[in-house]
Write a structure and sequence with these properties.
The chain is an alpha/beta fold and about 450 residues long. The chain contains 18 helices and twelve strands. The N and C termini lie far apart (about 80 Å). Bound molecules: glutamic acid (GLU). Glutamic acid (GLU) binds next to helix 6.
Length: about 450
C-alpha cells in the first residue's frame, strides 16, 4: 500500500510552498487508495509551538487534505535513540567537538583553495585521550553520521536519475551537542517505521535525500521512492523566500480565497497540464501525475487565485450559500434572487456583504452635472420600494415618455443614480432588491 506523509515543523504557519508538498503527497495517497500521514516534526522544543500544530491542522482541514494518521516526533525520541545506538555499534556514528567558529574557518579555508567546503572528519582521528579531554573541556560533542564515500543514486519521481558523490557532502550532524535529535535522523527512522513508500518534498532536500538513503540502508531498511519538486518563485522569477511569510494559507483564507481555487492551481502549476478550476479533491487527484512536473522553478502569482475563486463562486448554487446569505440579514424571500444577482459580480465571498449593504441602505447617487435635471424629473416617477419584477420596465417607460430620452442616455444615468455605480447587475433584478432609495430625495 502507498503511504505518504506531510512533515511540517510547527515553527510557523504553513504557506503556499508547504502546500505544494502537502498536496502532492496527499494526492499520491488518494490516487492509489493509500494512506496519508501527518507527521509533526517537533524535535526542536524551543521553536516548536502548539499553536502552530493547531494552525497546521486547521489549514489542512480547510483545504480538505485530511490525514489518516498523525504522528509526533517529540513522542518518538526513544526510537531515535535506538537508531543512534545502532549506528554507533556499526561504527557509522562519531562525536565531534568543533565549535561553529572552527567549522566556519575550515569552510573558508577550503573555499579559498577552490575546494568544496566539506567537513574534514578531523574528529575521526581523535584518540580516546583527546576525546576525553575535549569532553572535559567542551562537554558533549555533536554526533555525525559517517557517510560511505560512494555515489548515491536514485530514480527521482520528478528529477529523473540523480547521482550524488557522497564525498562532496559533509557527514551530517544528527544529534546536537545539547542532545537534541535533528530532523535528518528522526525522519529516516520515521519513514522506515511508518512504512512510508513515497516522499515528495522540495528540491532543497536533494542532498538530505542522498544522506538519508545511506542512513536507511545502514539501518537495514529500504529507502522510499523520492521525488523533489521545484521551489516556487514570484511571478517574475524572484525568490519567494522572504514573501512566503505573507503567503500563509490562513492569510489567503482571510483574503477570501476559496480552497478549491488554491488546490486547483497548486495541483497543476509547474506541470504540463493546464490549470482549471476543479470542484473537489477527487477531481483534482484525477489526472494528477508527478511525472508531468518539471524541475525548473515554478512561478507563482497570488493574483491567479482570484479568477479561480470568482469562478468557483459564480458556479455556486443558492443552497450552498443560503445560510451565509441569510446571516447577512437578507430576507428569506429575497435571498435566492440576491444570490443570483450578486454571484456574477463578486471575486471573493468578502464582496457579498457590501452588496447587501448597498441594497438595504441604498447607494449614494452618482449624478453627472448634465443629468441633474433629468434625474430630478425621473425620480418623481419612481414609487417608493418595495419593487416587483415589473418596476424597472414600467419606471423606465414612464421616464422615456416624460423626458424623451432613450437607450444608454436613459438607462446609464438611472443606474448610476440608483446604484452609485456605472456597471453592475441587471437593473430589473436590482430594483427588486432595493430597500432604500436615497436617489428619490433628488426628485423635484
Ligand atoms: N520537517 C521537514 C521540513 O519541513 C520535513 C522534510 C521532509 O519532508 O522530509 O523541511
Amino acid at each position: 500500500m502507498t503511504v505518504t506523509r506531510f512533515a511540517p515543523s510547527p515553527t510557523g504557519y504553513i504557506h503556499v510552498g508547504n502546500l505544494r508538498t502537502a498536496l502532492f503527497n496527499h494526492l499520491i495517497a488518494r490516487r492509489t487508495g493509500g494512506q496519508f500521514v501527518l507527521r509533526i516534526d517537533d524535535t526542536d522544543p524551543e521553536r516548536s509551538k502548539e499553536e502552530y500544530v493547531d494552525a497546521i491542522k486547521q489549514d489542512l482541514e480547510w483545504l480538505g487534505l485530511t490525514w489518516d494518521r498523525i504522528e509526533r516526533q517529540s513522542e518518538r525520541l526513544e526510537r531515535y535513540e535506538a537508531a543512534a545506538d545502532k549506528l554507533r555499534e556499526m561504527g557509522r556514528f562519531y562525536e565531534a567537538w568543533e565549535t561553529p567558529t572552527e567549522l566556519d574557518l575550515k569552510r573558508k579555508k577550503l573555499l579559498n583553495m577552490g575546494k568544496p567546503p566539506v567537513y574534514d572528519r578531523a574528529a575521526l582521528d581523535l584518540s580516546d585521550e583527546q576525546k576525553a579531554a575535549l569532553r572535559e573541556e567542551r562537554g558533549n560533542g555533536v554526533w555525525r553520521f559517517k557517510l560511505d564515500h560512494e555515489r548515491i543514486a536514485w530514480d527521482d519521481g520528478i528529477l529523473g536519475e540523480v547521482s550524488i558523490d557522497a564525498a562532496s557532502v559533509s557527514d551530517p550532524v544528527l544529534i546536537r551537542a545539547d542532545g537534541q535529535f535533528l530532523y535528518t535522523l528522526a525522519s529516516v527512522v520515521d519513514d522506515m517505521e511508518m512504512g512510508i513508500t513515497h516522499v515528495v518534498r522540495g528540491n532543497d532536500h536533494v542532498t538530505n535525500t542522498a544522506t538519508q538513503i545511506q542512513m536507511i540502508t545502514a539501518l537495514g531498511g529500504t529507502p522510499p521512492s523520492f521525488a523533489h519538486h521545484s521551489l516556487l518563485t514570484g511571478p517574475q522569477g524572484e525568490s519567494l523566500s522572504k514573501r512566503l511569510g505573507t503567503l500563509a494559507l490562513r492569510d489567503l483564507r482571510e483574503a477570501g480565497i476559496e480552497p478549491e481555487a488554491l488546490l486547483s492551481l497548486m495541483a497543476r502549476l509547474g506541470s504540463s497540464q493546464p490549470v482549471e478550476l476543479r470542484a473537489s479533491i477527487e477531481e483534482i487527484a484525477d489526472g494528477f501525475e508527478l511525472e508531468q512536473f518539471g524541475s525548473a522553478p515554478t512561478k507563482f502569482d497570488v493574483e491567479d487565485l482570484k479568477p479561480l475563486t470568482a469562478k468557483k463562486l459564480h458556479g455556486l448554487p443558492f443552497d450552498a450559500v443560503r445560510a451565509e446569505v441569510e446571516a447577512l440579514g437578507v430576507p428569506a424571500e429575497k435571498a435566492e434572487l440576491f444570490w443570483e444577482v450578486v454571484r456574477e459580480n463578486i471575486t471573493t465571498r468578502k464582496d457579498i456583504a457590501p452588496w447587501w449593504t448597498l441594497f438595504r441602505d441604498g447607494a449614494e447617487p452618482l449624478v453627472a452635472d448634465e443629468d441633474k435635471e433629468f434625474i430630478a424629473e425621473a425620480m418623481t416617477l419612481l414609487p417608493e420600494p418595495p419593487y416587483t419584477d415589473a418596476t424597472w420596465g414600467e419606471f423606465t417607460s414612464a421616464v422615456k415618455e416624460a423626458t424623451g430620452r432613450k437607450g444608454k442616455g436613459l438607462f446609464m444615468p438611472l443606474r448610476k443614480a440608483l446604484t452609485g455605480q456605472e456597471r453592475g447587475p441587471n437593473m430589473g433584478d436590482v430594483m427588486q432588491l432595493l430597500e432604500t432609495v436615497p436617489a428619490k430625495s433628488l426628485a423635484q
